[in-house]
Each structure stands twice: as C-alpha cells, then as structure tokens.
Specification:
170 residues, alpha+beta, Nuclear Transport Factor 2, Chain: A, 25% helix, 39% strand
C-alpha cells in the first residue's frame, strides 16, 4: 500500500501574508469577512457547493448550499454585527480527502444583538472545520467553494446571551 503524503500548516494568529499565499485560505478569509459583514445577499453558490453539507453543534445537518445559506440568514438575523477573532488556522492537505483540503479554525465569535441593551458583545468560542474544493466553472469565489463544514460550539452560550437581551435565537 503506498504511503499517504500529508501537508499541514498551522498559523497561530489568524490571517496574514503567508495565509494569503494559499488560495484556499485566501478563500476562507474572504468567506469569514462576508459572514462578519452580515451581508448575505450573494447567491449560495458563491460560497457553498450545491451538494455541500453543514453539520452544526446542535446536531442538525444542513444538506445543500441553498439550505445552508437560508439557515445562515435565519441564525444571523438577530444580530447587528459579528466578528470572528481567529486564534489559530490549520491547512491540511492529504491523500485521504476525495476532494479539496481541510481548513480548521479556532476562533472567538463576537455577536452583537440588534436589541442590544448594553454595549457588549456575546462572545462564543468556536471550532470550525471546512473542506474547500474547486468550484464548478462560473461559481464560487477565487475558484473555490465549501463542500463540507462543521461547527463545534456551545450554542447555549449564545442562546443565554440573547435571552438576557430579550431576543430569541432561531
């Protein structure tokens, strides 16, 4: 059996000129900036593949880029602003994935509810995992899109924060 060759790069403080030299990481940085902007007016296939899968920490699995994008519209609707503070990014390319590369991100996501009663964000530690692959011609961003995503986080932290602000999380 031939050996599998893997490549793993770890970046300790988020995005920089080194990460931007790797096309898939440049794509994920642009994706995170899009989500942080809360301007999700793009078509889903700018960011997610048609058959993409998103597994959320609450056990719900979203099938297809369109369903993922609709869910993201709903889950981020209660917020006036958000920001991913990236602590660590890993880029993993190996011979095991059928397509694409694995990108892992450790971050704190700050959420500011629209109904903000105090000038503070709700801060939630998250671990995000993305399989990024070449997009179909004419779709994606920088020629890439997400085909599989997973998020690990304590959704109750956000729900409690929203409850304290008088909002409801979808």
């Amino acid at each position: 059996m031939p050996a599998t060759i893997s490549t793993c790069f770890t970046f300790e403080s988020g995005y920089n000129t080194e990460t931007r030299d790797i096309p898939e990481l440049r794509f994920i940085e642009a994706y995170a900036a899009k989500v942080d902007s809360l301007n999700l007016s793009d078509n889903f296939d700018v960011w997610y593949g048609t058959l993409a899968i998103f597994e959320n920490a609450d056990g719900v699995i979203y099938n297809g880029g369109q369903q993922i994008w609709q869910w993201m519209h709903a889950i981020f609707a209660p917020f006036s602003a958000m920001k991913h503070i990236v602590h660590k990014v890993r880029f993993i390319k190996d011979g095991v994935l059928d397509e694409g590369v694995l990108i892992e991100m450790e971050c704190t996501t700050q959420f500011w509810p629209k109904s903000l009663l105090k000038p503070a964000s709700i801060d939630v530690r998250r671990f995000l995992s993305f399989v990024v692959a070449k997009a179909e011609p004419g779709k994606g961003t920088y020629g890439y899109w997400i085909v599989h995503a997973m998020a690990w986080w304590d959704t109750a932290v956000l729900a409690r924060g929203l409850k304290n602000e008088g909002s409801n999380m979808p």
